[in-house]
Amino acid sequence: MKSQYMIKPIIQTPDSEPNNSRRRFVFGASAMLALMSIPFPKNAFANALSQSLSQLSGKVFDLSIDYKMVNFTGKSARATVVNQLLPAPLLRWKEGETVTLRVKNNLDHDSSIHWHGIILPTEMDGVPGFSFDGIKPGETFEYQFTVQQSGTYWYHSHSGYQEQTGLFGAIVIDPATPDPVIYDRDYVIMLSDWSDEAPENIYAKLKKQADYYNYRERTVMDFFSDVDKNGLANTWNARSMWNNARMSDRDISDVTGSTYTYLMNGNPPQQGWQGLFEQGEKVRLRFINSSAMTIFDVRIPGLKMTVVASDGQNIQPVSVDEFRIGVAETYDVVIEPEVDNAYCIFAQSIDRTGFTVGNLTSDPSLHAPIPPMDPRPVLGHSDMGMDMSDMDMSGMDHSKMDMGGGDMSGMDHSKMAMGGGDMPSMDHSKMAMGGGDMSGMDHSKMAMGGGDMSGMDHSKMAMGGGDMSGMEHSKMAMDAAKATVSGLGLAGFGSNNEIKHIDTEFGPQVDMRADAPKSGLHDPGIGLRDHQQQFNRKVLTYGDIKGLHPTYDTRQPSREIQLHLTGNMNRYMWSVNGVKFMDAAPLEFEYGERLRITLVNDTMMTHPMHLHGMWSELETGDPDFIPRKHTVLVQPGSKISYLVTADAKGQWAYHCHLLFHMPGMFRKVVVK
Amino acid sequence: MNKTNLMALGLLSLSATLTSSAVFAGGNDDPLLTKVMLDQFEKGVDPQDPTQFSAQAWLGYDLNKLWLKTEGEYSNSDKQDLEIQALYSKPIAPYWDVQFGIKTDIKPTPTRNWAVIGVQGLAPYFFDIDAALFIGDQGRTAMRLSAEYELLITQKLILTPEVEVNLFGKDDAELGIGSGLSDVSAGLRLRYEIVREFAPYIGVDWRQKLGNTAEYSRNEGEDTQETQFVIGFRAWF
């Protein structure tokens, strides 16, 4: 079963090879090598999947949506299930085949199934209201499409809040050509959040009291302990910012473990999920976050995880100790556990109000200890989108900080322990020049386009390390003439456009605007930023992700759309550019165009943004290997860019995948 | 003026309900909701102390709401208070709503009616503010300012200091109200949230009549200042 020649779990190719055709050849050749030397692995592990997820495979699937009473908390509550299962059955497809899915709705409400991350015709996408009317009670809808991709995906209802009540399942698509990922066994790990409360009630409670589920608010005791530690003046100053903004630095998740029970493959934590492996096996874990509202941080104490795919798409392997998985994202990791040992798959919620666990072992009698949760995160000023890069209090332009209406006048700016000179229009943080790796850097790739070069202050550039001598500036793509034509940053490097807050962002519906949003690319995210330092854990960042396949569409973007994720936490309203879905005109893409979307997060929440029908090609710094994703986390007060090739005509949904943000933070995309 | 606004709100609500009934992928972002808050329902520990309540309710959407506010005081003596406000509320800033409508002071008699314009919201440092101007008939005017703060001792044990001041434009001898600053009150309540929606509390309430109003009280042989210890509960749904 095990391959004879593979040491690494992945077929690797040289990394620093900019030549696409060469890379393609190497890729193809090694794939062929794999084909010749080992049997195609599908049959070998088909039976090895977790017993807890029941699998359906083939070309025709009958799925029936029903209500069912379940009990995850000691109380019984009504769930929405597929074929009487929660999670819904794991669907195993094969790339290149045409699948038919007959979905019968036995609910007394409309329902639907959306195939998340699957490239398909718009009428098969399963979003009610967009060239599909939903599935009426008692009716059967037949989905049929040809599977054009491989990897780990999932499906869920796109009607009302049925997703939170259990209507979600995994999709694994076996590749038509041999899988470049070598493994002996695979398991799907589906993470979800369950509440006995009806989702409509949760939403209503949040509208009535936005911090209803937050039992981690700052108390008088915290204040005294801070005063004890830092002195009264410092504590007061540190608090004044938040008090003025009327925001809570403890506001991490809208809905928390106070109502949610976190599940792994449908198992609550006290029960846990269990997976078995045999000696010497490479195990591929296919993580899917099918939660309604919960972002998870995943690790397996004692094991390195090699991340081999993100959102179903193969990436150049990255070895990590921990990764954050946003709602709707998927990550595939390969691990090499040791025999006669047990490992805990530990997924803690981003706010540390709960976790879910699995036990991975070669011997069912062994149980790995469950680690304690990490310290709960507290938001910082940078999560409000303020430039904290140099703590020089001298000349901060406070006029740029615009939070919540005109009530900032009473604010004593001199006390604010934050700084930064006036923020240059150019955002140097985009230039991923951390550390001392300056020597090997290919400056020709630097996206320093635009006419703003004159105003650029190189002395401020955060090019860590003093070894600037070897830098050949002449090679830098400061081709002003060229860059001015498009005015856009080069493909693969993200936006260099100015952050603009348009008029609709001003009003009672928006409580904050990030005026110096940092790039979210290299940010592990709130609560994880100190894990390297504190626990010596390497945490995956988007900056680590490079596609395994060379960039599919090598064109430069012809235009850029800047979208601001906005909200009013206190009123519990969410929107894009300050306009909620109901009031918004659709976004129009021209068929065939290559464009860039830059998302600016003007809130303090982490938003997983999901574009239907087309890939979100995340610009992680290497134009030759741009990874494809379907859901992109936008860090608080940060920005991130991706490229989209508008190759799918029709109407598509584009929204935050946090279930209670989605109704407002939603756009229709029309490709014509 | 009020009637027109109420009608406008009604139409607005209706149209919002109609448009929101369409099936959309993400569900209705702005459902019609109601919230009823019994902020204070309390009895003084002294048997002669009155029973008091203060309640608010709203019906509406994210941005436009109808509010009802009522507060009252009941005791066996003839000293009873009951007022009701019906307001239309509309946001003017992320944390601020402007509210206008009517207020009726049913007790004590004779009944007084007022037009109301006010602002309600969250000020920096998390002060809950309610400030309103009342315009009555016969040239009567009044103003009320109240502020409340929540101090979390633990996540469920919450101390709430509050202050309120009332001002009147002119004397109302029948009701014993004098012009100018008429009274100041301050309260301190310590509640324990058994669940978010229900919290019993203990507290202390202090009231001081001032100026001409105090003068009226003294002429009636009443105290101008009262302090009472209260037990009660807070509830909402």
TrEMBL record, chain A:
Keywords, ordered alphabetically: Copper, Metal-binding, Oxidoreductase
Domain Plastocyanin-like span(s) in chain numbering: 66-176, 186-348, 555-671
Keyword Ribonucleoprotein belongs to the record: no
CDD domains: CuRO_2_CopA (cd13874), CuRO_3_CopA (cd13896)
Transmembrane segments: none
InterPro entries found in the cross-reference section: Cu-oxidase-like_N, Cu-oxidase_2nd, Cu-oxidase_C, Cu-oxidase_fam, Cu-R_CopA, Cu_oxidase_CS, Cupredoxin, CuRO_2_CopA
Pfam families, per database record: Cu-oxidase, Cu-oxidase_2, Cu-oxidase_3
Protein name from the UniProt record: Copper resistance protein A
Taxonomic source organism: Shewanella inventionis
Gene that encodes the chain: pcoA
TrEMBL record, chain B:
Signal peptide: 1-25
Keywords: Signal
Listed name of the protein: Copper resistance protein B
Coiled-coil segments: none
Organism of provenance: Shewanella inventionis
InterPro entries, per the entry: Cu-R_B_prcur, OMP/PagP_B-barrel
